[in-house]
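Support request from a user on the community tier.

User writes: "When I paste my structure tokens into the form, the page sometimes reloads and wipes my input. The last time it worked, I copied everything first. Here is what I submitted, just in case something in the input itself triggers the reload:"
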């Protein structure tokens, strides 16, 4: 499969407005629970909140007044007793977008959200 075919499969056909829409692999769930992120190369730990989660990733907001640019760093994330690892895809003003190396199963998602405030 060539690159153009892979890219086109990630987008829906053009809508009535004429724009293509991005298709996500997993549904995102808005939530809020305390978590801890560990940078695996330095073992530095950050306390914070997971604001959004899916089987493929999460949004982590550190409990700091500022957010450093950290794209591409390998991290560990604590999700209500489940430890997952992944990489920071992008840094935004609202937190770090993290892609997990291994997708979470439905049971792991249920455990991660067990004590979360789902919004």
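"...and here is what came back when it finally went through:"
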């Amino acid at each position: 499969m060539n690159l153009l075919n892979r890219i086109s499969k990630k987008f829906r056909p053009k809508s009535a407005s004429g724009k293509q829409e991005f298709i996500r692999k997993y549904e995102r769930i808005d939530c809020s629970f305390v978590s801890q992120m560990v940078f695996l190369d330095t073992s530095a730990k950050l306390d914070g909140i997971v604001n959004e989660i899916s089987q493929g990733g999460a949004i982590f907001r550190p409990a700091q007044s500022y957010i450093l640019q950290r794209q591409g760093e390998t991290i560990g994330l604590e999700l209500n007793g489940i430890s997952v690892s992944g990489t920071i895809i992008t840094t935004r003003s609202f937190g770090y977008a993290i892609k997990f190396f291994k997708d979470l199963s439905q049971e792991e998602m249920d455990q991660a959200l067990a004590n979360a405030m789902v919004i």
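Agent notes: The reload is a front-end session timeout and is unrelated to the input. The longest strand covers residues 29-39. Confidence is low (pLDDT under 50) at residues 1-11. Escalated to web team.
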